[in-house]
Design brief:
610 residues, 17 helices, 26% strand, disordered C terminus
């Protein structure tokens, strides 16, 4: 900022003679001894001290500022040079331009004296006792550098007991930088700030912007819910109508299901407010079906013990080698988490492990299910994130690969694929409670290497190959209520070796030879082009994570495996390269889940450490 905040008001007088004798300036350009360009760096101090002496002597002053019972003789030109407020007053054809005395309101005499001393000397003493008054006056009269100095002082003085007051002060005077710094402080020290009643005085908009932050420092979401309810009850008659507005910043789906039932749904204010019922329904659906529901409220906060991550499971490298590792990436923290390798089949030595290739995977209630595959066509396993282990469950009735899995209504579906002889229309439904598979309605069109996703009680099968050479553009829709399939709007292109993800009321489809990302709206039954790629990404993966879409690996038009991870941000509508995997991979699985945060090493731009 260039200013010095003095800790003492006792400043030595500056001698004009000394200043002139010790700072005579520099000869910055000499030409043949005939002329000189002289830069007198000390003149500004001479002028400043001269103006201050003229003010003290009441010489050449041309205006008197009246504040309460005190009068301050000043120079219009000095005030106009230092303050935009006085510049507008004296440089425009206003009444005050010609008046000898000007009455100022909104400031006390002591604070005005500090402002004028600063104007003439560039020095002031800021203390905890005067900073608020000085800031308010400096903001009123537009002494902008003084405002910055006060804001810097307040930033350094932030404490849990005073941060809310400073935040309200910054908000009142539109000090956006200070407001952002204080909000960041509250977010990082949230649990400490809650101990002070002043927090309950926060306006609703500031409270919401604070609670909305991914960086809010809480160990569990229950703290956020209790904060909202305490804030509403503090002025219940005024704030009850604001409950839906504030509660939408609580990530109810991330609450413990028992706490949600016993505390949230049982709360009398909650029960009396029908406008919050959609938020409760969203949480219930998430508890029932896990990652089938994806909203801004299902993303873990940065400081919780769990993080939303996406997994890159198995697949093939450029030399067709099988990948046994599961790469688990946390894009927010830019780190990798340790995950158990793909499982070996029952009673089989690890060195003879069957290859998990062209399998399918999905997430249900934070458990990853994998099924089928060229050499594991009947196998089904699930990964439990809490114990970091793969557990084998009931075999498929019909072995398959190049198929897909989807979650609908709390159940897992295995759809279509190839059985080694032909494309099949078989669909099986898994009941996790009874650990059994049962037949469901078969596909209308037999396909393999298609895309599948669920949305709002419907399951969608998109594209795929009806045989080894052709691809289809058909969109098949399954309704579990009628156990029947129907056709919806066709894709803009015929495609196979594709994948899909349900995200923000749309189903996004990528892969094959499309060189593009498409989205389908189940509500409107329409397709649109989202963005285009420079290369094909056949058999790539796609998964939503932290309110963005991540596209991993695949094969280009030269059949070369791809190592880059792309990120599509729906807010900015931009596609960027997130990172580069240590090796290219295709025909892999890609899913999202919440994982206990145990970082191994950071991801640096352009690479992923393994």
């Amino acid at each position: 900022m260039g200013d010095t905040l003095e800790k003492s008001s006792e400043e030595p007088e500056i001698s004009l003679d000394n200043e002139c004798s010790t700072k005579m300036g520099d000869l910055v350009e000499v030409s043949s001894g005939e002329k000189v360009k002289f830069d007198d760096t000390g003149l500004s101090l001479v002028l400043q001290n001269g103006l201050e002496n003229l003010r003290l002597e009441n010489s050449l002053t041309d205006v008197i500022l009246c504040v309460g019972s005190r009068e301050f003789s000043c120079h219009r030109v000095v005030l106009a040079a230092a303050s935009n407020y006085f510049r507008a007053m004296f440089c425009n054809d206003l009444r005050e331009k010609y008046e000898e005395k000007i009455i100022l309101k909104g400031v006390d005499a002591e604070t005005m004296n500090i402002l004028l001393d600063y104007t003439y000397t560039s020095k002031m003493l800021i203390t905890k006792q005067n900073v608020q008054k000085v800031l308010e006056a400096a903001s009123l009269f537009q002494f902008l550098r003084m405002v910055d100095a006060c804001a810097s002082f307040l930033t350094e003085a932030l404490q849990p007991e005073n941060c809310v007051g400073i935040l309200r002060l910054a908000d009142a005077h539109s000090l956006h930088s200070l407001k952002q710094q204080v909000q960041n402080y509250i977010i990082q020290n949230f649990t400490q700030v809650l101990n002070y009643e002043e927090f309950l005085e926060l306006p609703a908009d500031i409270l919401c912007s604070t609670l909305k932050s991914d960086d809010l420092y809480v160990t569990e979401e229950a703290q956020v819910f209790e904060t909202v309810m305490n804030w509403v009850r503090y002025k219940e008659s005024e704030r009850f109508s604001l409950l839906p507005y504030v509660l939408e910043n609580v990530r109810l789906p991330l609450l413990d299901p028992w706490y949600f039932v016993e505390t949230v749904e049982a709360d009398q204010l909650i029960r009396q407010c029908p406008d919050v019922f959609p938020l409760l329904q969203e949480a219930r659906m998430y508890h029932l079906s896990g990652n089938e529901i994806i909203t801004e409220r299902t993303k873990p906060r940065m400081h919780e013990f769990q993080s939303e991550v996406f997994m890159i499971i198995g697949g093939c490298t450029k030399d067709e080698k099988f990948v046994a590792e599961v790469t688990c990436l946390d894009p927010l923290r830019r780190s990798r988490l340790e995950v158990a390798k793909l499982p070996i089949t029952e009673h089989e030595p690890e060195n003879e492990n069957k290859k998990w290739v062209e399998f399918a995977c999905i997430t249900l209630k934070n458990e990853v299910y994998i099924s089928g595959g060229k050499e594991t066509k009947h196998d089904v396993w699930k990964y439990n994130a809490s114990i970091n282990k793969w557990i084998q469950i009931e075999y498929l009735n019909v072995g398959r690969w190049r198929h897909k899995m989807a979650v609908l209504g709390g159940k897992v579906y295995v759809i279509g694929g190839f059985d080694g002889m032909q494309r099949i229309n078989s669909m099986e439904e898994y009941d996790p409670f009874h650990n059994c598979w049962s037949e469901a309605a078969p596909l209308m069109v037999n396909v393999s290497s298609f895309a599948a996703a669920s949305y709002k009680k419907r399951l969608y099968v998109i594209g795929g190959g009806p045989n080894g050479k052709l691809a289809t553009d058909k969109t098949q829709c399954y309704d579990p209520a009628t156990n029947a399939w129907s056709l919806r709007a066709a894709m803009p292109v015929e495609a196979k070796c594709i994948n899909a993800a349900s995200f923000r009321d749309h189903i996004y489809v990528v892969g094959g030879a499309m060189k593009a990302l498409y989205s389908y709206s189940p509500r409107e039954d329409t397709w649109c082009l989202v963005t285009q790629f420079t290369h094909e990404r056949a058999s790539c993966g796609i998964s939503p994570c932290n309110n963005k879409l991540f596209i991993t690996g695949g094969r280009d038009e030269k059949n070369e495996v791809i190592a880059t991870v792309l990120c599509w941000d729906p807010e900015t509508q931009k596609l960027t390269e997130e990172c580069v995997l240590p090796r290219g991979v295709s025909h892999h699985g890609s899913v999202t889940l919440r994982k206990s945060y145990t970082p191994i090493r950071k991801i640096v731009p352009g690479a992923v450490s393994v």
